[in-house]
Amino acid sequence: MDAPTKTADPTIVNGIDVDDLFALIDDVRREPARGKTNWHVITTWRGQTRSRAEIERYELGGERVPRRFSIDIDEPRELGGSNNFANPQEHLVAALNACMTVGYVAQCAVRGITLESLSIETDGDIDLRGFLGIDPAVTPGYETLSYTVRIKGSGTKEQFAEVHETVMATSPNFYNLSRAVALKPALIVE
Prior knowledge:
Blueprint: E1 12-13, E2 16-17, H1 18-30, E3 37-39, E4 42-45, E5 51-60, E6 63-73, H2 88-110, E7 115-124, H3 128-131, E8 145-153, H4 157-170, H5 172-178
Antiparallel strand pairs: 1-2, 3-5, 4-5, 5-6, 7-8
């Protein structure tokens, strides 16, 4: 009778299984098509300024992975909404912060840096004259977003600076908001 095979406990840093993360990195290095993802969201109007974004799946390496989430969105009362949910701008900034948070946590984990705390504070100004069509010379969106990362853990100042540079170079949402992304609109009138 063979002795049972003992499996090693996973290496967990900052709540991330770094063994799985390194396996994913190696898998995508060997077979780049395994790293291709597709993200799909359907948003429907729910009355007044409310909408609901629904997520049913995403694709990883050509395989559909089912997911079920909904995100409710609204506007403040002062902007015509019912103030029941965060507005699109807050979701946009939250998505930027959340994406970068994943980057900081993962980059620290693969370097063996244990985090004690991490927060990202982001803000920006939008002039409603652009959004409301009052002045076509006024940009309808952000000219600048400013963010501050507060990070504490077992890393040195130099290690955290390296993590910071890496996150800015690899975060999908940092990329999406810091560069123009081609939008391919289609209108179907029913």
